């Protein structure tokens, strides 16, 4: 059974749960922010340096207010992939096809299939899903039949062991297998994904969790030391400096440690499928991701490459991270750098070729629209 459809801007409502900020955390953020803010100004108040306390409070609480306002903002509309999309139900796998992506995933790793609002939604996990709008079906009954068949295949896969999905079973992935390229095999840890869920794909130098905890614990120690010096030294100028430094160390250390602890808590939300062994192959044609239960291919026009000292991130054009490749998976750091640079070069080459193709098509449209010599009454006299 197969459906074909094209997303429109109104379909972004189906992706709300992935992009809407968790506004229920605003109150805890305010309470926690106030509790963290008080120790930063308390020493200055205790010593009678009210002007220092006021200055610290203005800076800190203005930052807190801006952060709360940012949490309260409505999310930007989701940018949906243009062009037609096909979803096909096969007994052994779920198949998806677009102009730039192709994928097959075993039913044993589809979490559930449900009708939500005006969409038939196929969940790989809570974080990744494929909503199919109602208009893709001829009738509401056809939509129900589609969901029931998908659920039937999913339940059957839990009772039997279907054959593995092969990259070369047919020509479905042929566009991605024709070129030579580079590959790496790796497994992600929960810490890898919780880090990127907290910070996103960033070029900021990566540090392991232990080093970050140690550095920020040191900031708290320095805060205590500077606070003690403020109480022990009688010089007004140095006391004011020590109070400001103590508050700065306290805020940086405590807030960063809280984000690290939140990162640790996020580990329980990481789907087990994200931790499986994965073979990632890149070539001028794009990317192939192979796991024991799924194959996904994407061309470079739908991907972006971001790297830092610890990871190579492959994201969609909206910044959502799909592949978190640890550089520790490579035999040497140099090979990891080479892999990342080749990905960047192929991505850039694909984008340049796409721009040139669009320019040529636009020029051809102009030529086709221009009147021919016989139709142009202002043509030059011919001899």
Automatic annotation (TrEMBL):
Q: Where are the transmembrane segments?
A: 25-42, 48-68, 217-234, 240-261
User: Which keywords does the record carry?
Assistant: Membrane, Transmembrane, Transmembrane helix
In its keyword annotation, does this UniProt entry include Membrane? yes
The region called Disordered is annotated at 364-383
Q: Would the keyword Membrane be found if you checked this record's keyword annotation?
A: yes
| Name listed for the protein in its UniProt record | YcxB-like protein domain-containing protein
Tell me the organism's taxonomic lineage. Bacteria, Pseudomonadati, Planctomycetota, Planctomycetia, Pirellulales
């Amino acid at each position: 059974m197969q459906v074909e459809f094209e997303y429109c801007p109104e379909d972004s409502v189906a992706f709300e749960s992935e992009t809407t900020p968790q506004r229920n955390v605003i109150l805890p953020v305010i309470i926690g922010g106030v509790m963290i803010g008080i120790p930063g100004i308390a020493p200055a108040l205790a010593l009678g340096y009210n002007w220092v306390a006021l200055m610290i409070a203005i800076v800190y609480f203005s930052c807190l207010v801006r952060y709360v306002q940012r949490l309260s903002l409505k999310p930007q509309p989701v940018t949906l992939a243009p062009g037609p999309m096909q979803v096909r139900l096969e007994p052994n796998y779920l198949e998806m096809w677009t102009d730039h992506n192709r994928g097959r995933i075993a039913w044993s790793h589809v979490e559930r299939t449900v009708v939500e609002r005006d969409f038939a939604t196929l969940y790989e996990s809570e974080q990744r899903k494929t909503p199919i709008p109602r208009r893709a079906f001829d009738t509401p009954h056809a939509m129900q039949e589609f969901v029931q068949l998908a659920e039937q295949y999913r339940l059957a896969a839990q009772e039997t062991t279907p054959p593995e999905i092969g990259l070369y079973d047919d020509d479905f992935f042929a566009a991605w297998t024709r070129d030579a390229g580079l590959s790496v095999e790796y497994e992600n840890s929960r810490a890898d994904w919780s880090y990127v869920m907290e910070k996103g794909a960033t070029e900021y130098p990566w540090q392991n969790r232990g080093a970050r905890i140690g550095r920020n614990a040191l900031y708290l120690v320095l805060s205590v030391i500077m606070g003690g010096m403020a109480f022990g030294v009688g010089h007004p100028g140095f006391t004011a400096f020590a109070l400001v430094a103590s508050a700065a160390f306290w805020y940086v250390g405590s807030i960063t440690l809280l984000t690290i602890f939140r990162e640790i808590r996020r580990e329980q939300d990481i789907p087990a499928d994200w931790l499986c062994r994965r073979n990632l192959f890149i070539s001028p044609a794009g990317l192939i991701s192979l796991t024991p239960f799924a194959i996904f291919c994407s061309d470079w026009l739908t991907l972006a490459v971001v790297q830092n000292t610890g990871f190579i991130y492959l994201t969609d054009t909206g910044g959502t991270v799909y592949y978190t490749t640890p550089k520790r998976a490579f035999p040497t750091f140099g090979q990891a750098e080479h892999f990342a640079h080749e990905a960047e070069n192929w991505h850039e080459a694909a984008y340049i070729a796409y721009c040139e193709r669009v320019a040529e098509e636009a020029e051809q449209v102009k030529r086709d629209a221009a009147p021919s010599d016989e139709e142009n009454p202002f043509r030059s006299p011919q001899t």
